[in-house]
Amino acid sequence: LELDSDISGALATVYVDGHSVSAAQKQGFIDASKPLSLNSVIDKENQFSYRFLDEDLKGFGIFMPVVAGLFGVATFLVLLLSLSRLIAQEQREIGALLAMGRTAREIILSYILAGLFCGAIASACGAACAPLVGRYLSIAYAKAVGLPPVIHVIEATPILKAFLFGVIGV
């Protein structure tokens, strides 16, 4: 089936417009496609496959922050456990530092800085890997649902917020 430029232009008008299509626009589309017999014209928001995909992708909008939060909590707990073991193993060194005149505040600050350093490295790794995981999930989802190839767009703001949350959360 070949469509001439007038009909493809009308298709673009019907499907590109994000708002509901008026009856006059629908009739104009039907008139422009006279060689074809059309029973009805459905705008994008009322089409079943569009609504289904929109609702399905909203699930990812709920699922992904929960997964990110779980990974963040797990990372926090692992880092907390690692630092507590480090402090437990270095009790002699801490005692020696206290005997040499270092204050408890200085020692605590050094461990906080070590935690921030480890948190910054872990957050940087997470920020670098997040787009790759998102790309993998979107490609697998597109294949499963039968969508055309996905064009990946990476927004820096959520990744930067997640990085800062990872560093501050430590």
State the main characteristics:
disordered N terminus; mainly alpha; rod-shaped; 170 residues
Report the order of strands and helices: HHHHHH
The largest sheet, given as strand count, sense and whether it forms a barrel, is: none
Radius of gyration: 28 Å
Can you count the beta strands? 0
Specify the oligomeric state.
single chain
Report how far the terminal alpha carbons are from each other.
61 Å
- The residue fraction in helices comes out at over 70%
Q: How many separate helices?
A: 6
Q: What does the average pLDDT come to?
A: 76
Shape: rod-shaped
Structural class: mainly alpha
Query: In percent, how much strand structure appears in the residues?
Result: under 5%
Low-confidence stretches: 1-18
Provide a descriptive summary of the structure in words.
The protein contains 6 helices and no strands. With 170 residues, it is mainly α. Helix 1 (5-16) runs antiparallel to helix 2 (23-32), helix 3 (48-89) packs antiparallel against helix 5 (104-145) and helix 5 (104-145) runs antiparallel to helix 6 (156-169). The longest helix is centred in the middle third of the chain and has 42 residues, at 48-89. Mean pLDDT is 76; it is low at 1-18.
